Amino acid sequence: MTTETTTRTPRFRLGFLTHVQGRGTDLAQTYRDAQELFVVADELGFDVGWVAQHHVPGSGGGLSSPWTFLAHAAARTTRIRLGTAITVLPLEDPVRLAEDVAVVDTLSGGRVEVGVGSGYSELEYAAFGRDPARKRESTTENLSVLRAALAGEEVRTPGFRVQPAPGDFSDRIWQGVFSEPGARHAADGGSNLLLNRAAYGFDAPTDEIQRPWADAYLDAWDRPRRPRIGLSRFVFPAKDRRTALRHIGDDVHRAALRMAGSGAFPEGLTTEEALRRFHCFHGSTEEIVAELRQEKVLPLATDLITQFNPAVLDHDTAVRALELIATEVAPALGWQPTTEPALAGV
Prior knowledge:
Shape: globular
Number of domains: 1
Largest sheet: 8 strands, parallel, barrel
Oligomer: single chain
Order of helices and strands: HEHEHEHEHHEHEHEHHEHEH
Helix content: 40-55%
CATH topology: TIM Barrel
Number of helices: 12
Strand content: 5-15%
Distance between the termini: 20 Å
CATH architecture: Alpha-Beta Barrel
CATH class: Alpha Beta
Strand order of the largest sheet: 1-2-3-4-5-6-7-9
Number of strands: 9
Low-confidence stretches: 1-8, 342-346
């Protein structure tokens, strides 16, 4: 790799997101496989590895304690940044969460990104004794405390500050949103913006729905630093579209039918419609690149966050897909891998 390649400023940072799911009941193996994905992504030059928090198991598992997981990932990697997309903030004590974040950030050499959101599972809220009707207010209240704690300020009582002393988190806090007002609210608070892989409850394509949200976020941004938008997208490259469908089609279809039960998607979707609703980019690398070049939000994104969920891939297939994303898909869109540390402000 030439010096020009390693020092060139990329068009966006490349990330991957895992929901830490597998097939069967061996969650220890599922967790080990997810850890290996972080090692592989680190070696491939991915800039950020993200995990999603789920207290209620999905199909094949889920990760209830993301900061414990990321502490282990920090020990196994050298340069990739480590983040949550998202931590369910209303179910956390924000001071206690700030302590976990500060510890992992210290252990990792300052590689942490913190993504938060309100979650959606009423069962999770019931288990933690929280009122789902107040999830928006709780998110705002807890985020204010979390920000103060990670800024090294006294929190809740005179003389108490989180230790170890946090690094600079002024541009490392992200907020997941599902509406234009939510995007403006994130900007008003100085959070980076996280956009989900699918826009639920809409008939139009996800990028058509989310582009006004991104525009509103940028319009509302009034901070001196550069605003950052993380765009999560389902990206699964394979030999061709038929091969891709063999790996992901059934899982995506089943997930869409489950989502219909909550009203997020219409009833009775076909596999093809389910793939559209989840905004899935799948097929050969050439097909995916061509489709991503038409993606309406990507030109505004500072971070492209690729994921395979709701498909549950075997480990070797997931590794191969990450390789194709890092070596063929992302470079064709203007990204360049680097072996340099992926600094927070890049």
